[in-house]
Amino acid sequence: MPFTPLHMGPGVVVKALLQGRFSLMVFGWSQVVMDIQPLVVMIIGEGHLHGFSHTYVGAVLLAVVSALSGKYLSELGLFILRRNHKWEPNVSWWIAFISAFIGTSSHVLLDSVMHSDVVPFYPVTEGNGLFGVISIEALHKICLYSALLGGGVYIAINHVRNLNRLSNKDALRRSSSWE
Q1: pLDDT 10s digit of each residue in the chain, 179 long?
Q2: What contacts 105, CB < 8 A, 6 or more positions away?
Q3: b or e along 83-109 (b: 16 or more beta carbons within 10 Å of the residue's beta carbon)?
Q4: In the chain, at which end, N or C, are there fewer CB atoms within 10 A of the end residue's CB?
Q5: Helix ranges, the chain (H)
């Protein structure tokens, strides 16, 4: 699935479940970093399309790169989106690394199912036992539906949290009144 937003679907589910303990921006950045090697192969027309970057060993190395760069890119993105007048770190190193590792490992898993040339467990094994476990159409549906499900869960959790905050503020006001 090079250069598709479908990789983001599972990330949206993880974001919904972990909320502030997961960075969807770092996760998304890790998806881009993973596909730099296939992009170079497509541009120059030589090499292995899904090479070392699409192994779990390569994914670990690219997760480190993604976390180190993605933390700062995410904070810049959040600064721009929020239009704050001051720069505040929003993504901890722990969150950046967890998000990047989940991103790169899920990328290898999804591409292993879809692409026959992915060798996920290289150098331990040269095969890809995951290829074709499910159809490409089913894989795409899983990714799409996970994005929809994750988005719904994320919205529902935040709605409940906001209702709880409002009721707690109301209860605090009632308990501190002079009545």
Answers
A1: 455 789 999 999 999 999 999 999 999 999 999 999 999 999 999 999 999 999 999 999 999 999 999 999 998 888 888 765 566 677 899 999 999 999 999 999 999 999 999 999 999 999 999 999 999 999 999 999 999 999 999 999 999 988 888 777 766 666 665 55
A2: 56, 59, 63
A3: eeeeeeebbeeebbbbbbbbbbbbbbb
A4: C
A5: 8-18, 24-34, 36-44, 56-82, 93-114, 136-176
C-alpha 159/C-alpha 69 separation (Å) is 32
Do residues 167 and 33 lie in contact, with contact meaning Cβ atoms separated by under 8 Å? no
Length of the chain: 179
How crowded is residue 155: how many other Cβ atoms within 10 Å of its Cβ?
11
Residues 6 or more apart whose Cβ sits within 8 Å of residue 89: 75
Through-space distance between the first and last CA atoms of the chain, rounded to whole angstroms:
63
80: tokens are 């721009």
What span, in angstroms and rounded, lies between the C-alpha atoms of 54 and 115?
Answer: 10
User: Is the distance from CB of 102 to CB of 27 less than 8 angstroms?
Assistant: yes
Structure tokens, 156: 């529902």
